[in-house]
Design brief:
Layout: H1 3-14, H2 40-49, H3 52-56, H4 75-92, H5 97-106, H6 115-125, H7 132-147, H8 154-161, H9 172-195, H10 206-212, H11 216-231, H12 241-259, H13 262-265, H14 268-284, H15 291-298, H16 303-313, H17 316-327
């Protein structure tokens, strides 16, 4: 018996009956020889972790656009916090931690430079529309690893595609990530807003603080415990209703005080204009795209889609440098 088979057997001994078992996956689009050491979801997690799209998350905006300071969240640190919250919940509920972590690490691979500002810009100028969750799936299916994709299991792909509020993953592990994503950004966006001097803990309305807690740590602890206590011993993932209602109020409070705050978001219109300008430039200069993307057009993808592929893959820094190279005049030099 291989190490992988031993681990798969251990899952059946330890995990809840409604967990997603590695040896019961719906499989991959392209069949592969199983690893002798790693079950399929652990293998998927490793593929995401070692991919270039994952590494680029370190220089993509979470909320604060290109902030001065080393401690503001990026899209990568957000992803890691989602993963940690989700793993804590999955372990407590005796669900598949490897699957949970793989979905969490891959859920935001398709985010644009400049966060949701870049996403809005591409969605506006691309006739086919643009949604980062769909782009995340496109990356793992068709764009990563030189255009070959990384051939993930059905369950991980389902969790990545359906992590947003309007969707619902098919597995309980995916549903954990869906909730953990919201918990993570409510927690760390508040932390970053405090660091920036935009808010203090005392600004949180008492109707929210009375339920969730008065500090960052208390709120995070409450939200995680509310999922575990509500879901323990059941084939569901849910949050205790009073805490869910308070979390919705906290999201509304953050939307009002941070996500639409002119002081925080004042530069976003510039970021959107930059992304739109790059989109129109590459629509007119398609030959400047990498060969791996040009091959996608030859295979039948629209020009708009592959331009979105290119721009959405950019980090904040690279997008700014491309814009400067194309549109900002340089000092003349004979050298």
């Amino acid at each position: 018996m291989t190490i992988r088979e031993q681990l798969e057997q251990r899952e059946h001994e330890i995990l809840a009956p409604w967990a997603s078992f590695s040896d019961q996956t719906k499989g991959r689009a392209r069949d592969e020889e199983p690893c002798d050491i790693r079950p399929v979801y652990q293998r998927d997690r490793d593929r995401i972790l070692h991919s270039k799209p994952f590494r680029r998350l370190k220089d993509k905006t979470q909320v604060f656009l290109t902030p001065d300071g080393d401690h503001y969240r990026t899209r990568m640190t957000h992803t890691l916090e989602v993963s940690q919250n989700a793993r804590t919940i999955a372990k407590a509920l005796m669900l598949n931690e490897d699957l949970t972590e793989a979905i969490a690490l891959g859920h935001d691979l398709g985010h644009t430079p400049f966060g949701h500002a870049g996403e809005r810009a591409l969605d506006r100028v691309c006739r086919e529309g643009f949604r980062h969750n769909e782009q995340s799936l496109r990356i793992v299916d068709h764009l990563a690893r030189g255009g070959r994709g990384i051939n993930l299991t059905w369950e991980v792909r389902d969790g990545i595609l359906n992590h947003q509020t309007r969707c619902m993953p098919s597995t309980l592990e995916g549903q954990i990530v869906r909730l953990s994503d919201k918990i993570a950004y409510i927690h760390h966006d508040m932390d970053d807003a405090i660091r920036a001097g935009v808010l203090t803990d005392a600004d949180v309305p008492s109707e929210i603080g009375d339920v969730l807690g008065r500090t960052l740590g208390e709120r995070l602890d409450t939200l995680i415990h509310a999922i575990i206590s509500e879901s323990m011993g059941k084939p569901v993932v849910a949050m205790a209703p009073p805490v869910w209602e308070a979390m919705q109020k906290m999201r509304a409070f953050m939307n009002r005080e941070v996500y639409t705050n002119r002081r925080v978001k004042g530069e976003e219109s510039k970021a959107e204009a930059l992304v739109e300008t790059l989109f129109h430039y590459y629509m007119d200069h398609i030959s400047e795209l990498p060969d791996t993307l040009l091959a996608k057009e030859e295979a039948g993808d629209s020009r708009e889609r592959i331009v979105c592929d290119y721009i959405s893959s950019m980090t904040d820094r690279f997008a700014i440098s491309r814009y400067e190279e194309l549109y900002i005049p340089r000092n003349w030099s004979i050298y």
